[in-house]
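Hey, sorry for the delay on this. The queue was backed up all week. Below are the sequences that define the complex (chains, strands and the ligand SMILES where applicable).
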Amino acid sequence: MNGPSQFPEQLIPMMNIFIFILGACIGSFLNVCIWRLPRNESVVSPPSHCPKCDYLIPWYDNIPLVSWLVLGARCRKCKVQISPRYFLVELLTGYLFLLVWIKVLTLGQPAVFIFPYFFLVAICIVTIFVDAEHRIIPNEITYAGIIVGLVLSVLWPELWVPQHRKWIVPERLISFMFSAGSMLICVFLMAAVSISGKFLFKKDAMGWGDVKYIGAVAALIGIPACFFTLLFGSLTGSMYGIFLMVFRKRKLRSAFPLGPFLAAGTLIWIYFGEIILNAYLEISRKISLAPPF
Ligand SMILES: [Zn+2]
């Protein structure tokens, strides 16, 4: 289970296809979340239906990627146009899932690493589309992220604890404490920033949705990912704010959603985190002349 050598090579092409299809199916469910969560509707019932004519969509019209193309982006009954977002989200989820799988395989990480990454990719996609349109990050996905992160840490301690070390306390407990501790530290720090920002500027600098989002990232993959997410999110977010002010003549501090920028930062960390971390350590080693880690 640990690394590419232990995974039978003949099976890899088949696994690639399977992971892509799995991603597209999850993407189909994310489409439901993107539409229903901001409208406070249940994501399980009623079953998928056309928002215009209420036509209950049968399984053969609900096949990820395929149905949208076969039906020509229209409802079978009333022919109303179906947004390209449905196709895009399914394609994007399939592709990002495949990239996660390839990364874990290439780096020889324990295969179970795909689970927190998959869950986080799903959270990022929902955050990007929902926050951009409705300016909220739904509690359902951030709370789910925190709970899933904690559960995974108990199920598979190797997500947090190096296998070759001997610990006095049970591994599962240490792993759980790492996940819960990362989440609590990040949530407290972010809450402090949010409250002091509100106190200083009399305006919401950072919403509670953003705070909980960072909590979910921390519980799933740890604090370094949160640092990068915040750095990337606030830099690109303020560049976007300046762009709005200069070219669109918006007022200073006119509100725009931060979530999509944070989610983009998280996605970059998921795929390039190890490279970024190594580059950072290499640079700080060179300039500080400190003994290497
Ligand atoms: Zn219809």
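DSSP finds nine helices and no strands in the chain.

I'll add it to the shared folder too.

S.
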